[in-house]
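Hi team,

As requested, here is the filled-out complex form for the PMV run. I kept the field names the same as last time so the parser does not choke. Let me know if anything looks off before we queue the next batch.

— J.
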Amino acid sequence: MIVTSAPGKVILFGEHAVVYGKPALVGAIDKRIYVRVERRKDETIEIFSEDLKHKKTSFSLKNKTPQLPEEFEYVKEALAITFDFLDKSCGLDIKISSGIPPASGLGSSAAVSIATILAISKSLDTNLKDKEIARLGHKVELKVQGAASPTDTAIATFGGVLFVEPSKNAFERIDCSISLVIGYTGDARSTKELVKKVKLLKERNPSVIDPIIEDIGRVTREARKRLEKGEDIGELMNKNHELLEALGVSTKKLSTLVYKAREAGAMGSKLTGAGGGGSMIAYTPKNQEKVIKAIEDLGCMALKAQISKEGVRVEK
Ligand code: PMV
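And here is what came back:
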């Protein structure tokens, strides 16, 4: 039996502007998805997840497979793509456990894909390099979603904080540690729809929207400098949220969580990810419990989170 895990993520700075070539800062969080696999004697794949409330499903990759719950679709594609890459296959019993709420914008699909790829390669006694795992994971997301940036799968593989610069097609590792509280609205949202909304707004009003995108880029570069020096990033987080509100991607509930978190003592707060629902983050070197209570008092789920330096790993 092999158990692997990979971390979820938050976008610390720069979402939406990154679509237009500006940098983003993304951090892995200490909330992980665990994949337990056991080889079978036949070629069947049997998968279930109590945490995600998905009952046991069996299929064979050799036949047309049934439509699976979303997280299982990522596992299925991870199996197909990794077997193909390794030119080997086997039947497996798979169990998924998750500490990341699904569809919350916290990177659960990338984490499950990456943890599955490592689990399969170990079950087949092969050693994939981290770079190969990240590349295969990106392929999985492309296959399931149609479009995906390599950011989520990179952060799930490597962990830590990455400064993503689309123009350079590269990631740089930033050494820092941050205490966060994550507030989850419970409202599902579509990243695709929100990216489209910003695109249309920008097309209709380039002279208004382009400077906002430039400003988000500037805030992100400044945040990188401060993180590297271990300085406070609260004010910049607040500024980033205001700019995201100006792009029209916040909601009343998200912004209420953001402002209540500040009132409860967070040094900064913003929505994280695409917006339109999903989650927000509060930068909380102090007052974590007060911020958690403020979020819970609004009927939302709050999670304490630290940056996880570790990416995908085999559990002992
Ligand atoms: O919904 P999330 O957390 O995966 O974030 C999407 C981030 C965007 O910048 C809005 C889109 C993207 O592809 O970078």
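Two things worth flagging: Residues 11, 15-16, 18-19, 105, 149, 191, 195, 273-274 surround PMV (CB under 6 Å). Residues 206-228 form the longest helix (23 residues).

Thanks,
J.
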